[in-house]
Write a structure and sequence with these properties.
The N and C termini lie far apart (about 65 Å). By secondary structure, this protein is mainly α. Helix 1 crosses helix 2. It has one domain. Helix content is about 30%, strand content about 0%. The protein binds zinc ion (ZN). The site of zinc ion (ZN) has 8 residues, from helix 1.
């Protein structure tokens, strides 16, 4: 049985700089499962991201609700 040698590089958390650290870690975890061959075969580098979506592993369920916005660090609101 010929093995396809196509080594796919999955996108991991660092490839989604706008996501919060929680969501990036979730994607990292899933990407690791793919690399370990524990997930269904795929040739989609974004598969980990989609699994995180399907499993509602983002901090906001189906999306990251703590996305880093633009570089405007607008920390004007002080919490007391
Ligand atoms: Zn998030």
């Amino acid at each position: 049985m010929p093995k396809s040698e196509a080594t796919i590089t999955f996108l991991t958390g660092k490839d989604y700089p706008r996501l919060c650290s929680f969501c990036r870690r979730a994607i990292d975890d899933i990407a690791m499962l793919f690399k370990d061959g524990l997930m269904a075969d795929t040739d989609d580098p974004e598969a980990p991201c989609m699994v995180v979506y399907d499993r509602r592993m983002y901090c906001g369920g189906h999306e990251c609700i703590n996305k880093a916005g633009d570089a405007n660090s607008d920390a004007s609101e002080k919490q007391t």
